[in-house]
Design a protein that fits this description.
mainly alpha, Growth Hormone, Chain: A, 2 domains, two-stranded antiparallel sheet, 17 helices, about 70% helix, globular, Nucleoside transporter protein, MFS_trans_sf, membrane, nucleoside transmembrane transporter activity, transmembrane
C-alpha cells in the first residue's frame, strides 16, 4: 500500500515499504540523523525507486539493466558464453603458477638445490598466504575488479623472476627467493580465487562451476607444456634442461596472466556485469545502513524511558500485579497454554524482525550458516594434498619405472582432475543428472575418499613388491584420487559459496570458500611432511 504526502519543502519523498510498491513518506531531510529516525529499518532496507520483478529475487539472477553514468552504461545484451569463458579463464589463471610450481620444484631441487626436499614448505607457504589474503578480503570486499587485474600483472612479474632469482644465485639465496616468490604468487592466487568465485556467483547466471573448471584446465595446460618440453625439447634430468623448462613455463604463464587481466577488465565493463556488481554493492550499503538504524532504534527507547522517568512523563508502570486478576482466574492447564501462546508470539515477532532486516548480518552470522560446507571443503583439500604429491608420487617406491615417470604421474593427476571438474556441468544432459550429487550423497562421497589412504601409504611403506609398487597401479591410484578431487572439489565450492541466498552475502562466502580451500591444503601439506 502506498500513500503520497509532501515534505517540509513541498517535495515528495519516495520510499518503498514493500518490493515493487512505491509509497511517499513525509520525511524531514534536514539532517542525516532525522532521516534515520523517521524511516523504519524495514523502509531503509527496501528503499529503491525501481520496482523489483520476481525474476530478480532468485539468488544470482538479475535482470538485464544498465547503470547510467557508469563505464559500460550503453546497454548490452547478456552474453552467457562470453561470461562463462571469462570466468573459465580467471579460474585457470588463478592456478597456472601453482601447477607450474608444484611440477617444476622437484626438478629445481634435483639440479640446483642438491636434492633438498623443499616441495611441501614451498607449496605450504603458497597456500598459507592465500588464507591471509582471503581474511583481508572479508573486510575489504571481493568485488574490486581493478584488484583482480593488478594481481594478474604482479602474478606475471613474479613468475618471470623465479628463473633469475633461483637458478643463478647461491643455494641459500635460491631457497629464500623461492619461498618469497611463492608468497607473492599465493597472494595473487588468493585475490583471483576470492574475487573470482564471489563475482561469478553474482552474475545473471551462476558461474562458480566455470571458475572451478578453469582451475582444472590450468593443470591440464601445465601438463601439456611440461610433457612437451621434457620429452621433445629439454632433458629435465640436467641443469640446462631444467633451466629451459623454468624459463619456458613461467614465460607462458606471464603472458596468460596479462591477457587474463585485460580480458577480465573489459568484460566487467559490460553493462550487465556493471549492473550486477553495482546492485550488490548498493544492497550491502543499504544493509549496513539498516543495521545502524536498527541499532539506533534499539537504543532510543532506553534513553527515552530514562529521560521520561526523570521528568515524570512515563506511562504508569505495569508490573506483575497489574495482571494478577487475569492470571489467577485461569486454571493451571489454561495458564500453561497461555504461556506457550505468548512464547510463540514472541518467537514470531523476532522472526519477522529478522526478516524485515534481510541480510543485515555480520560475517560471523554468515560464517555460521556456511560452516558445515566450509568444513567439507577443508576436509576435501586435506585428503587430497596430504596424499598428493608428498606421499604419492614423490615418496613411493617404484619397480622399473619408465623415463620421466614423475612427469607422467603429475600429468595424469591434472588431466583427470580437469575431467572431474567438468562432470558437474554435464548434469544438464539427459541421464547425467546424478553427476551433480545431492548434499547428502556429496558428504558420503567425501568421507569415502579416506579409503585412498591405505594404498597410498602402502606404496610408501612397502618396497620391491611387483603389484603394490607397480607404475601402472600408481597411475590408477593417481587417476582415481584426482578424478574425485576435481569432481567433489567443484561441488564443495558450489555448496560452500551458495550456502546463503543473498548475493551480497555470497560476497562473503566467496572469500570464505577461498580461505577454506588453501587452509585445507596447508593442513594436508604440512601433516604429510614426516613421510
Amino acid at each position: 500500500m502506498s500513500g503520497s504526502k509532501s515534505g517540509p519543502a513541498g517535495l515528495p519523498v519516495v520510499a518503498v515499504k514493500h518490493p515493487g510498491v512505491l509509497s511517499v513518506a513525509n520525511l524531514d531531510l534536514s539532517t542525516p540523523e532525522s532521516v534515520s529516525r523517521s524511516v523504519s529499518p524495514d523502509e531503509v532496507v527496501t528503499m529503491d525507486s525501481v520496482a523489483i520483478d520476481d525474476a530478480s529475487k532468485a539468488p544470482g539472477n538479475y535482470p538485464e539493466m544498465s547503470v547510467p553514468g557508469s563505464a559500460g552504461s550503453a546497454k548490452t545484451k547478456f552474453n552467457s558464453t562470453l561470461a562463462y569463458l571469462t570466468f573459465l579463464f580467471v579460474g585457470a589463471n588463478s592456478l597456472v603458477n601453482w601447477a607450474f610450481v608444484m611440477q617444476i620444484i622437484p626438478f629445481i631441487a634435483h639440479s640446483f638445490l642438491d636434492n633438498q626436499d623443499w616441495n611441501n614448505t614451498l607449496l605450504g607457504s603458497f597456500q598459507a598466504i592465500e588464507v591471509v589474503v582471503q581474511l583481508a578480503m572479508l573486510e575489504l570486499g571481493s568485488t574490486h575488479v581493478n584488484a583482480v587485474c593488478l594481481a594478474g600483472v604482479i602474478n606475471a612479474i613474479a613468475g618471470l623472476l623465479i628463473a633469475p632469482l633461483t637458478l643463478y644465485t647461491s643455494e641459500t639465496v635460491s631457497v629464500w627467493m623461492l619461498h618469497l616468490i611463492c608468497l607473492v604468487l599465493g597472494a595473487c592466487s588468493g585475490i583471483y580465487q576470492g574475487s573470482g568465485y564471489a563475482i561469478a556467483s553474482m552474475m545473471p547466471r551462476n558461474f562458480v562451476s566455470a571458475v572451478s573448471t578453469g582451475q582444472g584446465l590450468a593443470g591440464l595446460f601445465v601438463f601439456a607444456v611440461v610433457v612437451g618440453v621434457s620429452f621433445a625439447v629439454f632433458d629435465v634430468d640436467t641443469p640446462a634442461g631444467t633451466e629451459g623448462m623454468v624459463w619456458t613455463g613461467f614465460s607462458i604463464s606471464a603472458v596468460l596472466s596479462v591477457v587474463c587481466a585485460v580480458v577480465f577488465f573489459l568484460v566487467m565493463r559490460q553493462s550487465w556485469a556493471v549492473a550486477c556488481l553495482t546492485r550488490v554493492r548498493e544492497e550491502r550499503a543499504l544493509k549496513r545502513a539498516a543495521a545502524r538504524v536498527a541499532k539506533t532504534k534499539k537504543e532510543e527507547p532506553r534513553k527515552d524511558f530514562a529521560d521520561g522517568r526523570s521528568v515524570g512523563n512515563e506511562e504508569p508502570f505495569r508490573g506483575p500485579s497489574s495482571q494478577m486478576t487475569v492470571v489467577t482466574m485461569l486454571t493451571p492447564e489454561e495458564l500453561s497454554k497461555e504461556v506457550e501462546i505468548d512464547n510463540g508470539r514472541r518467537a514470531m515477532t523476532q522472526n519477522e524482525t529478522q526478516k524485515s532486516q534481510v541480510g543485515v548480518r555480520p560475517w560471523p552470522a554468515v560464517l555460521k550458516d556456511a560452516s558445515p560446507w566450509l568444513f567439507m571443503l577443508i576436509f576435501h583439500m586435506f585428503t587430497s594434498f596430504h596424499l598428493f604429491p608428498k606421499v604419492g608420487p614423490l615418496s613411493w617406491n617404484y619397480v622399473d619405472p619408465p623415463k620421466n615417470h614423475l612427469v607422467i604421474l603429475f600429468g595424469i593427476f591434472y588431466v583427470t582432475e580437469f575431467v572431474g571438474r567438468s562432470l558437474p556441468d554435464l548434469c544438464t544432459i539427459r541421464g547425467l543428472g546424478f553427476l551433480h550429487l545431492s548434499r547428502r550423497m556429496f558428504v558420503v562421497a567425501e568421507f569415502a575418499r579416506l579409503l585412498f589412504f591405505l594404498p597410498f601409504v602402502l606404496g610408501y611403506a612397502v618396497s620391491n613388491t611387483p603389484f603394490l609398487n607397480n607404475f601402472y597401479w600408481y597411475c590408477i591410484l593417481i587417476a582415481s584420487l584426482s578424478l574425485t578431487q576435481g569432481w567433489l572439489g567443484t561441488l564443495a565450492f558450489y555448496y560452500a559459496v551458495n550456502s546463503v541466498e543473498s548475493p551480497a552475502e555470497r560476497e562473503l562466502t566467496g572469500p570464505m570458500a577461498a580461505i577454506a580451500s588453501p587452509f585445507g591444503c596447508v593442513i594436508g601439506l604440512y601433516t604429510a611432511a614426516p613421510y
